[in-house]
Each structure stands twice: as C-alpha cells, then as structure tokens.
Amino acid sequence: MSVDEGSGSSRHTPLLVLGKITEILDAFSLARPALTFSEIQQATGLPTSTVQRLVTNMVAQGLLDRVGDQIRIGVRMAYWAAPAVKGVDVLTIVNPVLREMRDATGETSCFFREEQGFRVCVAVADTRHVLRRDMYVGKILPLHAGSAGRVLLAWNPELAEAVLARPLEPITDTTVTSPELLRELIRQTRSDGFAITTAEREDGSSGLSAPVFNSAAELVGAVSISGPTIRMPLARCEEWVDLLVGSAEKLTRTLGGRYPS
C-alpha cells in the first residue's frame, strides 16, 4: 500500500485513503441507494483503478454489499450506526442542519412535529432579515394550512383522515377548506416528496417542507423553509427544493432512517 493510502512512515501523514472511502460512501443517497462501479467513479471523480480497488476491499470488509453490478451500503454499517443514534436527542441533530439551511437561503428554517392534532415548531433557526414571519419554538399551528402540515399529513394516513373529517377552518383567503382538494394535495405531496404553499396560513408568506424519517421508516417530522412571499416567490421556492430535500435526507440518514417503501 502506498503512503497516500495510509501506511505512511509518519503519524502526521494524512490518511488520504479514508478521504477516498468517505467520498465513495457519500456517493450513495436514499434516492440512489445502489450504484455501479462506473456511477461511483463519476460521482467521486476518483481514478477507475482506485474505485475498483477500494470498492473491492470495502465489500470484503462489509462496508459495501454487491449483487451483480449493483453496489450498496453494507448492512454491517447499520450495525455500527445503531449505537451512534441510540439515545441521541433528535434536536441535537436537527439544529445544525436548520442553521445550514438558514445560512444558505437567508430565510427562517424550522422543524415541526405533530402533537395532539396540531403541528408544533420544535426547533427554529431565525432569519436575520428584519421583515420576517413570526416563528418560535413551541408555536402551535393547524395541520390543514401550510407546507409543513401538508407533509405531516402526507405520511400519516390516520392523522390525515382525522383532519379531513373535521371542518377545515379558513385562516386566509387562500386556505384550503375543501376536503377533496386537500386530499388531492396530500396525495401530490407524497408523490413529490415535498410541499410548497403560499398564503395558506398567513397572507404574504411562503413555505416549503420535506419529511424526515426514522429507522422504521416512520415520520419523525417536517423540515421547512419559510418567509415573506416578496422574498420567496414560487420560482425561488422551486430553486430551493433540492437544498430542502437534501437537508431532509441528511437528517434521515443521520438518524439511521429510511424512506417508506
């Protein structure tokens, strides 16, 4: 093995091979759980010979699994990951990601959970803009209005049916009050993997949200970006979908979670 792959003569020599292994593992995502050698090489930019050598060794050690030409994260990784997330407060993982989203967009980022038929803000990274939406930890909001509520309903069918069975009170002129329309929007949210709403809960405000799941593929909550529509028109919200969904996936992966089948 060469010095650049970790058998160097000095304790101060960087273990570059670990960086390459990390690049290979980072090539996988919940959206792309299986890759070929060629796809890994394209995603990492590493030489083909390096990818072949490292992947072969990673398969032998259980870091990766291989069936035919399809390569996946190894089941052994889940065994190692379990102690890392056991007993960890979800909010210790959520808060840094919210700050990253806030810094990338300039807008308020939040994490919502369902509590007793409402959605509750349990974590927030506030925008630094003077013009902002009023949001704080502990704020209680209805489930039928806004992007986070849409997400919480989309992956909880029993909750959705309970909400659809009761009157949908108007909050603004554009609040969805039709059970048939809300049912279709919930279905569309689950199909898209995210929701974007405008002025459903508050006039002149926009939001986009995506789901976070645990190891049992159960919904943990909804991660959101929100702000004034003047700064967040539909086109801007659509530009931020990849950032939002990527952040939600990062949280899901960190929690050892997986998407529902």
From TrEMBL:
Transcription found in the keyword field: yes
Organism name: Pseudonocardia alaniniphila
Transcription found in the keyword field: yes
Protein's recorded name: IclR family transcriptional regulator
Highest taxon in the source lineage: Bacteria
UniProt KW keywords: DNA-binding, Transcription, Transcription regulation
SMART domains, alphabetized: HTH_ICLR
Residue span, HTH iclR-type domain: 15-75
